[in-house]
Amino acid sequence: MREVESAHFSKKDISLPPFNSLTEESVNQYKSSLKKRFFINEFSIPLDSFKSHSLFDKYITKTDERIDAFTIDSSNSNGKRWKLDESSGYEFPDLFIWDKEMLRFPKGVDPVRLWRLGSFNNIVSLGLKYLLTKDDRLLDKYIIIIDDFEKSNPFCSSIQWYDAETCSIRNVNLCLSLILFSYSDDFSSDKINRVIKLILHHSVYIENYINSTKEKDYKYYIALLGLLSTAIILGENAYSKRIRDFVVREFELGIHTLSHSDGIFKGQSTEHQKLFCETFLLAKILLEKIKFNTTKSFDDKLFKAFKVLQNFRESDTKFPNLGDNIISPILFSYKTYNHDLISSGAYLFKEREFKYFSNDIPIESLLLFGDNVIDNWKLLQVDTPVVGSKGFTDGGNYFLIKKDISLFVKAGGIGYNSGGAPSHNDTFTFELIYKDTPFFVDAGTYSFYADKELRNQLRSVFNHNTFYVDNEQLAEFDGIFRIKNDLTKPKLLEWKSNNDEDILSVQHYAYVRLPDPVISKRTFHLFKEKNKLKIKDEFIGGEKHVASGNLLFHPDVEITRIDTRKYLLENKGVKLELNFVYSSEYFESFIHTFNYSSEYGKVIISNKIHYALSETLPAFYIIEINFL
User: Fold this and answer.
1) Per-residue confidence (pLDDT) for residue 67, from 0 to 100
2) Which of 518, 340, 489 is nearest to 428 (CA)?
């Protein structure tokens, strides 16, 4: 802090890791050495013939979409684009990142869009398009973005330097884009020196973050990825060697620390499962650039994590939509994130089932695997994945599958090391798609910062398809990201799957903290031949309690209440019948509304069924769903 503030007010720079500035005499040698470090051979894509390739137009379109979304017009930017929350009109002040006023902004303001902009995903797209077109105007645009960012965001003194995850992702993309533009003769020593200097500023920032953070969570490993990228750019020097020796050990440990034995990300978030896969996919590839081959246990765990992604499906609703959203992918496009990752995993592992999910390999694969990836991709055969139920028993994620029926159940704890976000208070929640039509959904994330009350509302137990006792949370919140203590300790009682039925029975202990301790059990029984699902909730205790729950529906679902026991559900002609069976006369249910967020930054009103049973325990009720 003292060094940065002193440098800022004296108009001098902080101490940076040593690097010999390039001259016009040494720049070509540096470019050649950099390309050889990163690619086994010089890129040899025959541009004239590749322009007639079916992928060429698709690649150009994809890069253009991402470039246009992040275009900086230097003539009228005045730095505001990096600081202005366009949805609210609020402009973040130029403050040091340790100034508590930095995040004291009005309701409705959210820096996440700015962090997505500041992640620099677009500059790799610029570089990839340059690789295909050799259009030096793209280099000019690239330098404009770098210049505008530097002028508008002095080191550690703007909102763009606040989030460590964003800064680390930005450094990865700075390094990768520098490699791509090194193919341009117009990328002069002066321009390269400016980019490297910005990279070194990020490296100092990342090192300080790594040294100060107590928890080695997913952000920690994204930060290591940022440092590893710097080491590749710098080549052989003492600073680079120190980075390499450190990150190699950490990545080998981290892939096991952050995931269960079956590949499920311990943070219990769909989007973060993708981010986990991307982080360690890039780690493996970048480690190979410094001549370090990952171990078999590393590769096996990464493969298992990709197998988890194979069970995720893209539709008009994410399935599953578990836990928090993310600020930004590292390298890939957010719109095609799952498909891009799966196809990259198909190529990396030569896994034929993965290829089933994507006809084309993403343009980023040129950077990751080299120019021969396109021809090799064609040679990889395709296998149709076996469709069926799947239980990731260690991570607590279950897919109960029958033709036309896709049911997801989360039976895991509340986040990594019971810390809360990116997981929600959603143990034993479920989501259901029938005939490719969404019915039971997750409430989503909406925003981390724009509405803190709504933020905690959407991650609470009251906004998931699960139960709660005496109107108590599964775990008490500590701010907008953490929880105070996770007592759920989910336990698998039974998991059985065959052609006739799936049975999943699980138990948790979140409510043993009540004056009269309550043990909660939920059993899912999918009768495949009968097209019926029964969800039985049981509560064991000794006194009177209120067991409540909610069933959250996609906005397109029409709900018809027949009586407190029976409802009819319809979405675009697809129908379900829902019945309640219960052990007490003190049971009620009714239709209510909830806030539904299909994607970050958007929220609308949808409908839910709220139900409650009041009884001296033990007691139970059954949610019965008939697929019509």
Assistant:
1) 83
2) 489
Query: Encoding tokens for residue 349?
Result: 């592992």
Q: Say if residues 488 and 510 touch (Cβ distance below 8 Å).
A: yes
Tokens of 16: 């940076």
Shared-domain flag, residues 344 and 452: no
pLDDT value at position 70? 63
Question: Both tokens of residue 560?
Answer: 């018809």
- Which of 492, 534, 520, 536 has the alpha carbon at shortest distance from 618? 520
Q: How many other CB atoms sit within 10 Å of the CB of residue 182?
A: 20
- For position 459, what pLDDT does the model report? 96
- 538-594 pLDDT, tens digit per residue, is 999 999 999 999 999 999 999 999 999 999 999 999 999 999 999 888 999 999 999
Which long-range CB contacts under 8 A does 134-141 form with residues at least 24 apart? 134/47, 134/183, 134/184, 136/184, 136/186, 139/181, 139/184, 139/186, 139/187, 139/191, 141/67, 141/71
Residues 593/604, Cβ–Cβ less than 8 Å: no
Sheet with 501-508: list strands edge to edge: 491-497, 501-508, 519-527, 532-540, 619-627, 574-582, 566-571, 558-563
Q: Which of 223, 225, 121, 210 is nearest to 165 (CA)?
A: 223
Q: Give the total number of structural domains in the chain.
A: 2
Look at residue 74 in the predicted model and tell me its pLDDT. 47
Asked whether residue 426 is domain-assigned, the answer is: yes
Give the pLDDT score at 313: 73
Nearest alpha-carbon partner for 104 in 90, 89, 87, 117: 90
- For the domain that residue 194 is a member of, what is the CATH number? 1.50.10.100
Q: Using the 3D structure, point to which of 346, 379, 412 is the last residue of a domain.
A: 379
Asked if the structure places residue 1 within a domain, the reply is no
Helix (H) or strand (E) holding 10: helix 2-10
Whether residues 278 and 163 fall in one domain: yes
Tell whether 73 and 123 lie within a shared domain: yes
pLDDT at 532: 98
285 contacts: CB under 8 Å, gap ≥ 6: 368, 369
Q: Which residues of the chain have pLDDT under 70?
A: 46-48, 69-79, 314-317
Confidence (pLDDT) at 65: 85
The verdict on 191 and 112 lying in the same domain is: yes
Instruction: Give residue 502's domain range.
Output: 390-627
User: Are residues 524 and 414 part of one domain?
Assistant: yes
pLDDT score for 312: 87
Q: Rounded to two decimals, what is the model's pTM? A: 0.95
With beta carbons less than 8 A apart as the criterion, state whether 305 and 394 touch.
Answer: no
Residues 265 and 412 in one domain: no
